[in-house]
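Dear colleague,

Following up on Tuesday's group meeting, I ran the structure prediction for the two-component complex that the binding team flagged. I've pasted the input sequences exactly as they went in, so you can double-check that nothing got truncated or mislabelled along the way. The structure tokens for the whole assembly follow below. Feel free to forward this to whoever is handling the docking comparison.

Inputs:
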Amino acid sequence: MKKKYRILAVVMLLPFLLSLWAVHRRSVWMGIGAVLSIFLLVGMMPFCRKRENLWLFVMGIYALLPINHFLAKEAVMYLEKESVLQGIIYLLTYLEYLLIVISGEEVFMGLMGRILWKRQCKLDIS
Amino acid sequence: MKYPRANNFLEYKRIDFDICKVKDIRTGETWELGMDIARFLKKLDGRTNPYAAVPYLDKDFIDSILSRFYYEGLIRTDGRIMPIGIGSVLCTLYIPRIKRIHRCFAKLLNTLLLLLCIPSLICGIYIYVNALYSLTDGNFSLLKGYLLGLGAGFVLHELAHACACLAYGGQVYEFGVALRCFLPGAYVCVDYDNVKSRFKRAQINAAGVEMNLFLSGIFMCISCCERLDSLAFLYAALMNIAMAALNVSLAEGIDGMGIISEFLGVDGLVEKARNVVRSGKKKRALRKKGINGCVTIIACYCIVVFQIALPLILVAGVMNCVAAFF
């Protein structure tokens, strides 16, 4: 990998830091900023060209993980964790909510990605 | 009396003056039949006596055609219930006959759904938040709400898929109820291979979720009416929101994965991602493509991990039931 690309890849960590900050400060605007920064970075980085939806998919998962974790944790707040069974239910429900929140975000970001960048290469995994 | 029914997954295409190409969209098998024979096959709907359908043909000749149809799988023999795996069964309820008027109506409904799903939800939430104090509780509100929400949600969700598919020129083959990994649900069998636009294909997948959001908005609006059992309607709205949330999950066979597959431009995404994860050769080939190849491998791993969503929902549901009893 070229050195330039390595530096650019490190820049790709910015949305993750932003979403971490958004959770820490409980700021909705920072969260929106984190999402926007993903789109901005994907639009700017040369190696993302024509593969924007793929990058949005991967970046959406890791960069917004703190926000998704926070949302899923808030959603299962009503569950008790006193016994082992309740603990297992808490964990399963948390994971279920986490996956659903991430899925919803991915669908939304995929839609926006296709609207913003119409001409894209197919994912080559055949 | 039970008469033979033509396989409802057949696609008829006239290729010559007197020859019709018939294709089974499930198996991909094709046959070339004479126009008269194809017309006869089309008439076999399970309610029509085959001998009365074409009175000008000889009885022995009809018998020989029918036996050929049975032999080649052009007549449906598997009944209404079709097992498709462990804990998964399809049960056919309705086989539609699509006419031009249905397509016009579907276009109208699909446009309305696209325009109204989000405004209806926002409007419902706004009205509900502002009229929270007026909620009234009736008898068995919870049960009524669940039944109303599930019933309307399941039926209209599938109808929305069918409408979107017909609106964009696809085909609708059958409606039914299904068990998928022991989870009850409904299904509609559609074919939209002739739809080329990725956006349109994604919208066919997303139509069900749009309908659930639309319904939840409507139920929230109704729940503010004091004369009705508003708590039941509120539960129905919540059920539809839950259904919309479950349907966007990226599990195989669920609408969310269909939408993402269209956006990433790959058909059969889960199977292909599994193959990449399993095969070291494919991973090495992808790594050679540089950073984009590496990201593709990560995306494949993510897609495979997302497949635990459906079993997770099932296990969480069972555990919740167990916890409710103990």
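The mean pLDDT of chain B is 85.

Cheers,
M.
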